[in-house]
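Running co-folding for iron/sulfur cluster.
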Amino acid sequence: MKGWEMTEKCLCEPNEVIIFSCAGSSNVGQIANQAAIKLAQDGVGRYFCLAGIGGHVSGMIESTKAGKMLIAIDGCSVGSAKKTLEHAGFNISEHVQVTDLGIEKNHNLNILSPDINKVAQHLESQISQRRGLR
Ligand code: SF4
């Protein structure tokens, strides 16, 4: 198994923090995707392709193994991103479900900036704590 356990601190740099999102076909799946984009654009970590992990693409598996902190963002309790990573043998350092942050799932795909920011801020705080920055 590769990746840091939930209880460990990581002295890793942002480029060693790897973010995956489920990018599911619902508002919460797309909020997960946009939150991952925001975290990458804000320099918190790098956003990788979950589909590459699901497809066992060797280069993507190897790149992910080089990461020190793996982040999974799921839209809902189905936990597709978490399950995909675990199925490939990775340990996840931080996991969040958008619905656990009080955002209700629907299929209208109208996503709101405050919801994206809420998920991104939650994870940024969790990642900073894990890196010993807070
Ligand atoms: S976690 Fe939920 S929103 Fe994301 S892909 Fe799975 S079912 Fe869809």
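Result summary
The beta strands are 17-21, 46-47, 69-74, 94-97.
The chain has a mean pLDDT of 93.
Job closed.
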